[in-house]
Design goal:
The chain is an alpha+beta fold and 70 residues long. The chain has a single domain, classed as 2-Layer Sandwich (Alpha-Beta Plaits), CATH 3.30.70.100. It is 31% helix and 34% strand. It has 2 helices and 4 strands; from the N terminus they run βαββαβ. A 4-stranded antiparallel β-sheet has the order 2-3-1-4. A hairpin with a 4-residue loop joins strand 2 and strand 3. Keywords: Metal-binding. This is Heavy metal translocating P-type ATPase. It comes from Candidatus Daviesbacteria bacterium GW2011_GWC2_40_12.
């Protein structure tokens, strides 16, 4: 398992952060997602053999937000 942070843009409130966490935690291989509206970032703990950075970015985009690796 590794931990990685991603910058998020497009969030309007803390409910946006909850949506991102729920969508990321649905991915097989993601142990934990902790998104902060105030910091505009998410920290994810995941298995890099099951989840790639591009899959994380794609999932966040499907949730309606933009993301990048700082």
């Amino acid at each position: 398992m590794i931990k990685k942070k991603f910058k998020i843009t497009g969030m309007h409130c803390s409910s946006c952060a909850i949506t991102i966490d729920m969508d990321l935690e649905d991915l097989d291989g993601v142990k934990m997602s902790k998104t902060s509206y105030a910091k505009a970032e998410t920290e994810i703990e995941f298995d890099p053999e099951k989840v790639t950075d591009s899959k994380v970015l794609e999932t966040i985009k499907k949730s309606g937000y933009e993301a990048s690796i700082p």
